[in-house]
Amino acid sequence: MAYEQMTPATRQEVLGLYRKVLQIAKKWQSASGQIEETMREKEYIRNEARTLFRKNKNLTDPELIKQCIEECEARIEIGLHYNIPYPRPIHLPPMGLAHKQGRALRHQEKLRKISKPIYLKSHDEVS
Fold this sequence. Notes:
This protein is mainly alpha-helical. It is built from five helices and no strands.
């Protein structure tokens, strides 16, 4: 996020979220309790945070910044609640219902896009 364009309060909020994610990664324990899996999940959390925060560091639109903050908070809460660091999958009908081209396909793609939960907005862009 562009620090010269960002209010000091927003900058502190973003940096606080980044520190919180890194602290969560440091203390993370996998659900299985296996050391290898715990290490893999800790590394995933750190890499995902670095990737997304770096990707969004030049944002200047306050609305987009707010959406990214909300996504980060949602992913933190879901990860802690379900004890999984990975984004939870969404369950939407497959694209097989529409024809391979035309208005029906575009309409179904639009419905899938707007029904995507906030915690997955940036997942497909990065992964």
